[in-house]
Design brief:
The complex is a heterodimer of chains A (118) and B (109). Chain A contains no helices and eleven strands. Chain A has 118 residues and is mainly beta. By secondary structure, chain B is mostly beta strands. Classes of the chains: A mainly beta (118), B mainly beta (109).
């Protein structure tokens, strides 16, 4: 049981290049999330998915696209990378929506992808 | 937005006790998580509070006061491996998690 995995671990891009980050989970989770983490900013939600074939915008979606063609995979795409997208990207998954109350469902995070855009 | 405030950095001595505070806007509060994140690694779940009071889990405890919009994470018998960032995250309404900026804790011998 690998949990949540991300590829690649590191990447350097030039401005204007495109790339796709892959997230995979083997826990049969319905919900998947993409965050970015920047110094002094905390984790910010980019996009999320509530199930296969669905996606939704988070707090900072501009410049990114996502797809969830298979339940276990969640892809994050950068069509034209910009230096402002230099960040550490984390994927997470959960069985249900983290909706609070007495029994929320915690998120499980992948190891992260460190992206530098020159 | 829903502001979540926690100190940026803290230092504590091995074997001692440290308390990391988190304050948040009370409107729409629906639960609070604490995560631990070692440098270069993923966040991992530590605790969850939705009712007032103290939740104890080994050396770690988390406290919540909903009326004051206040939580703290208490770490006892500090070990060098506790050097990490500690993230406070709040659920507002029926929405996703909102994370604070994290507190970087350094343990010194």
């Amino acid at each position: 049981n690998a949990g949540v995995t991300q590829t690649p671990k590191f990447r350097v891009l030039k401005t204007g290049q495109s790339m796709t980050l892959l997230c995979a989970q083997d826990m049969n989770h319905e919900y998947m999330y993409w965050y970015r983490q920047d110094p002094g900013m905390g984790l910010r939600l980019i996009h999320y998915s509530v199930g296969e074939g669905t996606t939704a915008k988070g707090e900072v979606p501009d410049g990114y696209n996502v797809s969830r063609l298979k339940k276990q995979n969640f892809l994050l795409g950068l069509e034209s990378a910009a230096p402002s997208q230099t960040s550490v990207y984390f994927c997470a998954s959960s069985y249900s929506m983290v909706a609070g109350g007495l029994s929320p469902d915690t998120q499980y995070f992948g190891p992260g992808t460190r992206l530098t855009v020159l | 937005g829903q502001n979540i405030d926690q100190p940026t950095e803290m230092t504590a001595t091995e074997g001692a006790i440290v308390q990391i505070n988190c304050t948040y806007q009370t409107s729409g509060f629906n639960g609070l998580f604490w995560y631990q994140q070692h440098a270069g690694e993923a966040p991992t779940f530590l605790s969850y509070n939705v009712l007032d009071g103290l939740e104890e889990k080994g050396r770690f405890s988390s406290f919540l006061s909903r009326s004051k919009g206040y939580s703290y994470l208490l770490l006892k018998e500090l070990q060098m491996k506790d050097s990490a960032s500690y993230l406070c995250a709040v659920i507002f309404g029926n929405e996703k998690l909102t994370f604070g900026t994290g507190t970087r804790l350094t343990i010194i011998p």
